[in-house]
């Protein structure tokens, strides 16, 4: 229970003819939150002590004094100034603290970090659910199948589980999703023709979601690896070379098929040369001028993709992807890719992976006016999840910090498997 101690001269009661015994100018309170303490000696008879307690059990607002503005001002002019609560005492340091003169500092940055309210006022980077794009794995099955390497993630049945997961995301402000299909092995081929089947898994899922949620923003993945019997992002020649221009031809048909189904943003993730310009021309030729392209501009040949490939069962049948994905040791090369994608008509530039490549995100942010996307990939997600399960880290705090770091580095949007969980945290929902 908090108390406010006020010393007032007795002649305050002269205002409006109120007697000090009647709570020194205050109206009596039926809640007895005001107590007038009577002096016990003649020496104290000239002053009486008014103690105002803010009771926790008070069932209404504290009663006012009932004085007009003029009467309150007159009391102050007459010298009868009511006392505010006392200045808080200076906190004592622990025993043994050295006594030293204050450092002659003109600027102390800690002043802007001294309380939660001050820190919030000067926060430079804001993270909201609108910044998230939720990657969702889909398959032909009826049931949602858990993904062992990605705790909390599932291959969602496109008819039911997908719609339910999107509904949960929309409830907490996440209104953008990107779809990744687990294609039946029987439909995979060396040239990935299933990628542009208008009645394939992805086009069907797009149409279903757009029918249910017309304002949902749907991103798609444009690449052949989920549809390829070789597991590569492009057509593989006999000697193992990934064919560039022939692959781009297939990607254009895939992008048009996705746009025809209702995709808002197509996302070529294959890293073939010239594919952004070719896809832009193909979309425009079919009248899809409104469909955007988010280019995987700086997609590195990273070891952080392992859990994702398990989710889609799309590991390369042989070799690796280093002849088309970027070398993790390279920095300047990202600028080469960004300039090409910009000139070919990309609307968004993406960096993948995210957290290990914050310098690349900042590089593109500082050198391009286009929106920058970051993909917090499966390996990043699974490491945080594993660390949380083992009690080595606080999962929720690390999750939110990692997402904030991606935003601080310059990402406008973040593709993250944490989208639903993080949005719930931002909305204050209990887990």
Outline the low-pLDDT stretches: 1-52
CATH topology of the largest domain: TIM Barrel
- In round numbers, the mean pLDDT is 87
Q: How many domains would you count in the coordinates? A: 2
Strand content: 15-25%
- CATH-defined architecture of the largest domain: Alpha-Beta Barrel
Distance between the termini: 33 Å
Shape: elongated
Number of strands: 15
- Helical amount: 25-40%
CATH superfamily of the largest domain: Aldolase class I
Structural class: alpha/beta
Q: Largest beta sheet: what is the strand line-up?
A: 4-7-8-11-12-13-14-15
The string of secondary-structure elements, in order, is EEEHHEEEHEHEEEHEHEHHEHEHHEH
Most strands sheet: 8 strands, parallel, barrel
Describe the structure concisely for a colleague:
This is Delta-aminolevulinic acid dehydratase. This protein is α/β, with parallel strands linked by helices. 30% of the residues lie in helices and 18% in strands.
